[in-house]
Write a structure and sequence with these properties.
four-stranded mixed sheet, alpha+beta
Length: 177
């Protein structure tokens, strides 16, 4: 296999450097980031509105429109994190949860799984985001969210994948919004 060395680690991410030799004996160095698994959710009401989150993303240096989501804590199940994050970030509970698969981000350098859920049958409550989060709810028609993905105005990977998977899911059920 080779040599693996942890470069940095905190409760969310581990960065390591792997030195490996190929079959011809040539050495290669790979940087690998392991990020805690997570879950994300697209809440949709009966009229075809979706509720997204606008927040400043330090790494981008600007605001980003995204679906609510977060990382798993210890042995938490993906659906549990999706429910928790939706309630914390937007104050929404949902009666129906549809698992639309998962996505792996940047598979060449990042180990991370994000489970994706569509939430329906929405009930609105008071949000309680983490103290480090400054969030603004963004309500829009689902068709507008699809358009923003296609125009690269929504660029957060799991958000794009979930919005497009939801579009296909709804199309397959002849639900058009």
């Amino acid at each position: 296999m080779g040599e693996s060395k942890i470069i940095y680690q905190n409760r969310h991410i581990t960065l390591r450097e792997d030195r490996v030799s190929d079959r011809k004996g040539k050495e290669h160095v790979f940087a690998v980031a392991s990020v805690n698994s997570g879950a994300a959710v697209l809440p949709m009401d009966e009229e075809g509105n979706v509720y997204l989150v606008k927040q400043f993303r330090y790494a981008l240096g600007k605001d980003s429109i995204e679906i609510p989501g977060g990382g798993l804590d210890s042995q938490e199940k993906p659906l549990d994190i999706a429910k928790r994050e939706l309630l914390e970030e937007l104050g929404i509970k949902a009666l129906q949860w549809i698992h639309l698969g998962f996505v792996n981000s940047l598979t060449s350098t990042v180990v991370h799984r994000e489970d994706l859920f569509l939430a329906r049958g929405l009930e609105f409550h008071t949000p309680s985001p983490d103290e480090t989060e400054e969030l603004t709810m963004v309500k829009m028609k689902f068709s507008e969210a699809v358009k923003l993905v296609m125009q690269s105005h929504i660029t957060h990977g799991p958000s794009c994948v979930l919005i497009l998977k939801t579009n296909e899911f709804l199309r397959s059920r002849a639900e058009i919004f």
